[in-house]
Specification:
The chain has about 160 residues and is mostly helical. The protein has 7 helices and no strands. The N and C termini lie far apart (about 40 Å).
Length: about 160
């Protein structure tokens, strides 16, 4: 399992909790925790990409403080082909507040909403995992090359 103290680790934790909570939500007939959990997990997967691969970009600091999945996704799409639409991220991101807090925009989500939210989340999870794993391999190869340079050998 991924270390918990990272965006990716927290995303994985939220994903597993939300996915396994689906059966409980089915028993009580309320899917708001699933849809809100999908939104939170998706946000963390996307921020894991920003954290690892966009640290040199000044706009990222603002996005890291945001819950706007569409804006975060659009930043990622500047560098990477990502198989999730901005429309899907906007829809999923709306659950962050609307399914969790009472008020004029409060909504009760359906089983179909929860299934669709999980499907979008799983697409985000898969794409984020592939991008991050690829980058980790590149960085591991670069570290290995650096370690093999004579300048980094112990001087006796």
């Amino acid at each position: 399992m991924e270390k918990l103290n990272s965006y990716f680790g927290l995303a994985e934790n939220d994903y597993l909790y939300t996915k396994n909570g689906f059966a409980f939500c089915e028993q009580i007939g309320n899917y708001n925790n699933v849809t809100a959990g999908c939104s939170q997990s998706a946000e963390k997967y996307l921020k894991a990409i920003l954290e690892l691969l966009f640290s040199e970009d000044a706009d990222v600091l603002t996005l890291m403080k945001s819950h706007n999945l569409r804006a975060i996704l659009n930043k990622i799409k500047e560098k990477y082909d990502f198989p999730v639409s901005s429309k899907d991220c906007k829809w999923l991101g709306d659950f962050y507040f609307d399914a969790r807090y009472p008020g004029d925009n409060f909504l009760v989500t359906t089983k179909e909403d929860a299934e669709e939210a999980l499907s979008i989340l799983e697409n985000i999870r898969e794409a984020a995992s592939e991008i991050i794993e690829k980058e980790r391999k590149i960085r591991a190869e670069q570290r290995k090359k650096m370690q093999n340079l004579k300048a980094f050998e112990d001087i006796e």
